[in-house]
């Protein structure tokens, strides 16, 4: 999962490039916009407006430093989540080197976005006076997929959110091949163990069906047999289409035009803008 695609998990109408599998947590994290995520290249000698190589190297070095700091903060947040312990701003500041404290707001925002998009966890301030935070599954969901007896097990709510969003965008029912096409754009493929989510086919067709988040059924009268996904009763009970819309607006800044059944007034408001 590339560093420039976790930020765009819910941009299902965009064509995402399937990535190579990361080897470390830092390689699996988002880093702002696509322009920011690209490591600066060496400038062309013929271009007079391009900064000198020293400036480019400094920019690349700063990008790498921020990447490491965000990976450290995300790792810390995951440990606190597994331990079910409150998180304080002072503790998070302690993760960032003393000579880089001025970059904490940016690192904090990017780490928060990563926790939401990659792991499906909202970092919420629970006590503004004490600057205390807590991580909770987003959209009102209560399942995170963390195995208590496996210290390497990571939250998988982020993938569940993506699947629910795809079904929502497809009009409450999505063919299995459409689901895998969307997940493939973010490097999640059936039969291939993913760095964060493990083997995804078992999640979609077994675990989430048993948990009540998905319904997996054969398309009526299909020959050869084709299958489709719908929201399960637990998904309907814990979240809603309104929450999905709010999530899309939050992470994408707008509702994707591929959503086939938005109320006309919502579409019109989105097209008109503020």
UniProtKB/TrEMBL annotation:
Residues 70-266 form the MAGE domain. GO terms for biological process: negative regulation of transcription by RNA polymerase II. InterPro entries: MAGE (IPR037445), MAGE_WH1 (IPR041898), MAGE_WH2 (IPR041899), MHD_dom (IPR002190). PROSITE patterns: MAGE. Transmembrane segments: none annotated. Residues 39-55 have a biased composition (Low complexity). One of its GO terms (cellular component) is nucleus. Residues 14-55 are annotated as: Disordered. Pfam families: MAGE. This is MAGE domain-containing protein. It comes from Sus scrofa.
